[in-house]
Specification:
heterodimer, A: 106 residues, mainly beta, seven-stranded mixed beta sheet, globular, B: 124 residues, six-stranded mixed beta sheet, 10 strands, 50% strand, elongated
Chain lengths: 106, 124
């Protein structure tokens, strides 16, 4: 299963809304779909699992939705600390697959 | 809470070997499938290997098949990855992570959990 993220880079300002897309090469079980945030030199941080559930401690400005082969991740109002790379991930079967990443930059 | 601590990384020459370890706590390790994922400098996330909870089933990425070996010791809550015939392109941070498959009656994890990673540098 191939995961394709778009856009590759998103240039926005603090306070704006960010919307990221991840399309899978075939329908997947949304129960096992997630989104990660990664900042330089840091471990990927799980934000969303089950396509739409926020992980523990994740602010409600982060949200996810989708099913089948089409998934979306949004940040309602960008905070300075949200500028990072975001990856989608399907963990429903092996091999795990990841999107190539979307960089959200100022 | 769930904790995964990787170790064993280092700087090695091409062709050499390393053994990575991942010590787990805070969940029933022996019930869960475990994965290794790596990230080369400036690159995305690449899945490497998986081992079932009972060590019976295991799979590898084509890029490491025949050179890497995954194993686990459930009595020590530890996952291993033996890296052999290392290449320059194996340079990466290696992460262990919990899988979704649970083979026991106690299955508390809601999603993948990741360790902090251990760095492998292959350089001549």
């Amino acid at each position: 299963i191939v995961l394709t993220q778009s856009p590759g880079t998103l240039s926005l300002s603090p306070g704006e809304r960010a919307t990221l897309s991840c399309r899978t090469s075939q329908d997947v079980n949304s129960v096992f779909f997630g989104w990660y945030q990664q900042k330089p030199g840091q471990t990927p941080r799980l934000l969303i699992y089950g396509a739409s559930k926020r992980a523990a401690g994740i602010p409600d400005r982060f949200s996810g939705r989708g099913s089948g082969a089409d998934f979306t991740f949004s940040i309602s109002r960008l905070e300075p600390e949200d500028f990072a790379v975001y990856y989608c991930h399907y963990y429903g079967r092996s091999p795990w697959t990841f999107g190539q990443g979307t960089k959200v930059e100022i | 809470q769930v904790q995964l601590v990787e170790s064993g990384g280092g700087v090695v020459q091409p062709g050499m070997s390393l053994r990575l370890s991942c010590v787990a706590s805070g969940f029933p390790f022996s019930s869960y499938t475990m994965h290794w994922v790596r990230q080369a400098p400036g690159k995305g996330l690449e899945w490497v290997a998986v081992m079932s909870y009972n060590a019976i089933n295991y799979y590898y990425a084509d890029s490491v098949k025949g050179r890497f070996n995954v194993s686990r010791d459930n009595s020590r809550n530890t996952l291993f990855l033996e890296l052999r015939s290392l290449r320059l392109e194996d340079t990466a941070v290696y992460y262990c992570a919990t899988g979704r498959e649970c083979g026991g009656d106690d299955c508390p994890l809601l999603h993948p959990n990741w360790g902090q990673g251990t760095t492998v540098t292959v350089s001549s």
